[in-house]
Design a protein that fits this description.
It is built from two helices and six strands; from the N terminus they run αβββαβββ. Helix 1 crosses helix 2. The protein has 119 residues and is an alpha+beta fold. Strands 1, 2, 3, 4, 5 and 6 form a six-stranded mixed β-sheet that branches. It has a single domain, classed as Threonyl-tRNA Synthetase, Chain A, domain 2, CATH 3.30.980. A hairpin with a 2-residue loop joins strand 5 and strand 6.
């Protein structure tokens, strides 16, 4: 497996171990976090290392605006806690919440890019 694939698997494993539902495809059910390749996806860092970037989209499971923002905040906290112990991961900065359509229903969501340094 490649270092990028390994880093993706490690992030998914850490999220799931932290009790956060993770998806890597469009097949998902809120609340969850969608993990996709970031941009730029990979850059060299002190060879032989690389930094991979992964886009995280945290999606609340509630549609009521006040409750969804609270749930989204709790989800972000849970993601940060789950990723915290993962060596090589830089915790992300989360964007302001936006509306996210899922199955015709609008949910609150926030996006961040996590950097994962590998060697």
């Amino acid at each position: 497996m490649s270092r990028l694939s390994d880093s993706r698997a490690a992030i998914v494993d850490a999220l799931e171990a932290g009790g956060v539902a993770a998806a890597t495809t469009g097949q998902l059910s809120a609340p969850c976090v969608l993990l996709e390749a970031g941009d730029p996806w990979s850059t060299p860092q002190r060879m032989p290392g690389r930094v991979g970037r992964w886009r995280l989209t945290a999606i609340a499971g509630r549609t009521d605006s006040d409750a969804s923002l609270e749930e989204l905040a709790e989800l972000v906290d849970a993601i940060d806690v789950a990723l915290g112990p993962l060596a090589g991961v830089e915790l992300p900065t989360w964007a302001r919440p936006v509306d996210y359509k899922l199955g015709g229903v609008t949910y609150a969501a926030t996006v961040a890019t996590v950097q994962y340094a590998t060697s």
